[in-house]
Amino acid sequence: MTASNASSNGALALGSAFTYNGGTVELWMDPLGLDVKQGGEKTLHVTWQDVVGASSNGSTLHVGTCIKDSHGHRQLDTIVLEGPVSEDVGKFANAIRYIAKFHHLHKSSLPSIDDMADKAPPAQVHAVFEAANIMVTKVLTKHEAHATDIVEALDLTEYAFVVCVGGDGLVSEGNASSTRYSFLSLSWAFIADVDLDSERYRFMGSARFTMAAVIKMLSLKRWRGRLSYLVPEGETSSQPQSYWDMHGNDASSAAPITSLLPATMGGDFSEKWATIDGNFSLFWSSSVSHPSWDVHLVPGATANDGFVYLVVVEGVVSVWTMTRVLLGLETGAHAALKSVRVIKTR
């Protein structure tokens, strides 16, 4: 690979010049990402986190990107640049893939795609893998329990991972004979009522949730309850020991041990527990940042950090306050509101 220029901050210019959007540009890469420069001025910057892969076709360089839009949703796109020498362009594509950390996916993936899925058509899913230069073996399920048959006959040494595209039933089948216990989210008060009430408006599609939310806010209903949660011991920012490390069990299908709970739920809680007693407007707990594709409930949470997060709006709040909370759920902006508490627990 040839490089015409290098800077003191570790940036490296790939080749001499490319053609991009009808103009002559330079393509630079540095520890933070890729830069497209024209006349020495940066016209485009893509972080390595947003680069999904790269490929070449003769002297044409394709860089696959997946950048967040203003709503926090990632959009798949391709940067197309015409290079001077086809051999060098191929080397540039290899270098970009390597630094973007997709080079280690040397095995292929097997997406088991539900032919009834309406959220993500197979063509859209395949495009993401193609942009990331990941070899894909695509299988469409044709009948009930077909995914189970596929997984049971699968040679796992041939694949890096299996991707299921469809509903929760497909994921359940894909687990085959394995039993796993997990927790995604639990809601009560406003969110739970909206979820239940929206069923009568199912004919409206996804708009049924908006309809149910507006009606529920105007009803001025309030919820009274008692919430007790375990206060993490020691440094709350450190990752706790995983459940199965603490409660080892040879039988993987054994039900989880609930020893964290006090002996009598109606009695006094130990000093390890904190309690909120009174009116609530919203309660939503989750072990992940996104309980659904369009709700960024807990910014910064990861699936393996060992914590459960409680998002709580205490007391009786105004329609305007609840509206701001709901509008902020998509981007995570609600977490910064004074009326919202985000509690880390176990």
Question: Could you name the key traits of this structure?
Answer:
alpha+beta, PH-domain like, 8 helices, five-stranded antiparallel beta sheet, Tumour Suppressor Smad4
Q: Cα-atom Rg, whole angstroms? A: 25 Å
Approximately how much helix is present in the residues?
10-25%
Q: Determine the mean pLDDT.
A: 79
* Total count of domains: 3
Number of strands: 16
Molecular structure report:
It holds the Pfam family DAGK_cat. By secondary structure, the protein is of the alpha+beta class. The chain has 3 domains: 112 residues, PH-domain like, CATH 2.30.29; 45 residues, no CATH class; 125 residues, Tumour Suppressor Smad4. The chain is built from 8 helices and 16 strands. The strands form 4 sheets. The chain has a 5-stranded antiparallel sheet, with helices on one face. It is globular and about 70 Å long.
Brief overview:
Helices cover 21% and strands 33% of the residues. By secondary structure, the chain is of the alpha+beta class.
Question: Could you outline the blueprint of secondary structure elements for this entry?
Answer:
Layout: E1 3-6, E2 12-20, E3 23-30, E4 33-38, E5 41-47, E6 51-57, E7 60-68, E8 74-82, H1 86-99, E9 108-114, H2 122-131, E10 139-141, H3 146-152, E11 159-165, H4 168-174, E12 185-189, H5 190-197, H6 207-219, E13 223-230, H7 243-246, E14 273-286, E15 308-314, H8 319-328, E16 341-345
Parallel strand pairs: 9-10, 9-11
Antiparallel strand pairs: 1-2, 2-3, 3-4, 4-5, 6-7, 7-8, 12-14, 13-14, 14-15, 15-16
Helix pairs in contact: 3-4, 5-6
